[in-house]
Specification:
The complex is a heterodimer.
Chain A lengths: L1 E2 L5 E2 L8 H17 L3 H16 L11 H14 L3 H17 L9 E3 L7 E3 L1 H21 L1
Antiparallel strand pairs in A: 1-2, 3-4
Chain B lengths: L2 E5 L8 H14 L4 E5 L5 H5 L7 H6 L7 H4 L1 E2 L5 E4 L4 H9 L8 H6 L6 E5 L6 H9 L2 E7 L2 H16 L7 E8 L6 H14 L11 H8 L4 H4 L4 H4 L1 E3 L2 E3 L2 H11 L1
Classes of the chains: A mainly alpha, B alpha/beta.
Amino acid sequence: MKNDMKGLTRFDELPGVDPAVESLLGQGQRRQDEARLPRTERSRKKKERERAQKRKPNRINLDLPVDLKKRLEHLARKEGVPISQLVAFLLYEPVHQLESRVISLWGYKIASGCPKFECNLDLKRRADEAAHHDAAQRVASRKS
Amino acid sequence: MHTTMAILNQKGGVGKTTTAVTLASGLARNGYRVLLIDLDTQGNVADSLGLPHSDDLRRLLSPDLHVPIDQVVTSSGLDHLDVIRSDKSTTSLKQTLAGVTLREYILADVLINAAYDVILLDCAPSADLLHFAALVAADYLLIPTRLDKLAVNGVRDALQTLASLRRITRCQVAGILPTFYERVTLESHEQLIHLAQTFGKLVLPPIPQDTQCRVATRYGKTLWDYAPNAKALNGYEQGNRWVGGYRQVLDRVKDWL
């Protein structure tokens, strides 16, 4: 056991303890550490923690182009299914194709100014191509 | 063949009776045939289960009465859970037993053929004759402790008592159960670290401080019946799981049986 500068006991050198005890001690330690932070920082950490706790492991937030979102909503309503299930249904095939390199992102990648990601995807080009492909198919079907 | 567990701490007010009643009723709800014996003159086990006080223990252990165990056992009103109650007469019992030879074995002898899966002994907060008899009769010792200095000293005393009886008992320390845990107070945190640092894996998941325990006792009901969602039963929510509380402790206890 060792004491830090404020005289608080830290538990990072404990021998094997029950996982539940360890978990509660970890939580207590975090509370103590947070108690020393300024109020704004403390409330920010609290909000972050609450957000993380609410997050389900199978949930992601996506930013979709507005028109695509509207089309998905319309389809989901029309088919009477949840939109998240519709998106999952539609994604299986392209995800498999991307994994097995049947399709690639080549040609759609454009340099990103954001330090977090190397590239962004040119979604407008993808949307135009999809619309063009759709129109071509309609013409072909009319001719036939 | 039954497993006997003594619940003991020489310090009072640490949650021995609440622990004994909650674990006994929890095991009974899981289908174990459980006998809960009150070794305390205050007779709080009867209060906790909404039963009247009785001199069951005196009748069972008095050397001149020789009453068989099945005649002193009372149904708790819950399935699979029987009790042997205690009252002020236990004080005179202790005086009577003081002159008996091999008195430390008296409880072990009467329990030898008891037809139960688990026998829980709720001990008094004092180092008396019944305290020693409980340690001799028990296979396991569970030591509830409040998370304050004096109660933690009580853990040390209990372990010293067990060590002094080492020649005549096979009892092992099964766990140290922190009770009245308050996760927001520094003192609880510090004492829990102290316990974990000293006793390692013997320290069981703590029981949160919960007023429902006292209220349930007032109504003579077990926590499982009175407040099944009580913090003392379920522990603290951490993300998508629950930590601490009697439910988790019950799972640990079932592993020992």
